[in-house]
Amino acid sequence: MQENYRLNKLSKRLRSEVGKAIADFNMIEEGDKIMVCLSGGKDSYALLDILRSLQKYAPVKFELLAVNLDQQQPGFPKEVLPNYLESIGVPYRIVNEDTYSIVKRVIEEGKTTCSLCSRLRRGILYRIAQEEKCTKIALGHHRDDMVETLFLNMFFAGKMKSMPPKLVSDNQLHTVIRPLAYCREKDLAKYAKLKEFPIIPCNLCGSQPNLQRAAVKQLLQSWDRQFPGRIETIFRSMQDITLSHLLDRELYDFASLSSLSQQEFNPHHKANQAPVNLLASKAKSEEKPKREFTEQELDQLANDELFGSQDYDALARKIHDDHHLEDDDTVIKGLSIKQL
User: Which stretch carries the motif PP-loop motif (predicted)?
Assistant: First the structure.
C-alpha cells in the first residue's frame, strides 16, 4: 500500500516535469513519430514509460518507436528488451551493430571509451531514424546529466556548454529531444526500482570507474550533501544567463558599448569605431590581422580530412584523441558502421 502511494506520487511529479519540458521547448507536435532510444538503463526505461503515459492524455497525437542498439557486448541478454517491449505492446526495432569490438580494438586498455562509443552509436541511431521516418529522436538524459556536462566542459574543455534540451543535427535532418531535462536522477532511480524495470548493465561505460564524468558526479553529490539544493540552483542558473556579465565577445558586443558622458565629453569618440589595442605599436596596428577559422569551417575541414581516408581504424583513433571528452552534440556524419 505504501509503495503504491510512493509510486503514484513520484509518477505524478515525473509526468509533470516531463510535460513541462516538452511544452517549454516545443519538443512534441501533432503527428510526430518519436524514436525513443532504449539502452536498457533506468533513464531510458523511465523515458519510454512516461512518454507512453503522456501519450494517452496528450492533446496531440504522436507515435512511439522504441529502438535498441545491440552493440554485441559479451554476455548481453538479447531477450530482455524484446520480451519487455512485447509485454507492454510498444512497437520496437533492435539494431545489431558490432561497435563493441571496434571500440575495444581502437581504444587502449584503461582508456575512456565514451567519446568513440557515443559517436558510433549516435551515427547509427541517426541512420535508423531516417529509415523509420521518425521526426524526433528522444534521449534519456536528465537534469543531473546536463549539470555534469556543464562542469565537464568548463573543467576540461574550457567551454561554457551543456546538453541542450532540443537540438537539430548538423545536417539538419534530425531533431533530438531530451524530455527528462527537468527530472532529477535520484527520482528516476527510485521510479525504476518501484516499477521493477529489467535493467541491463553496460559493460563498456558501466565498467570504467575512473571516468571524468564519474568524478564530476561525485563532486556535485558531495556539494549537494553539504549544501542541499545546490544542484537545483546550478540548474536554474543555466536557464537565466546574462551575456553582458560574461566574456564572450561573439555573443555580446562589448566593443560598441558607450555611455552618454563618453558621447558628450569625448570629442574623439565615434560610434562603432574599431577597438584600440594599447599594447600594439603603430606599425603592428596597421598589419592585416591573421584570419581565424570559424567553428563551422573547422568542422568542414575535419570532415573533408577524415572522410577522404579509407583507414577507418585511424579515423576512429583520431576522433578519440581529438575529442577526449564526451561531446553529445557531435556525431560522425556519413560513416557506415560496416565500413569500420
Answer: 39-44
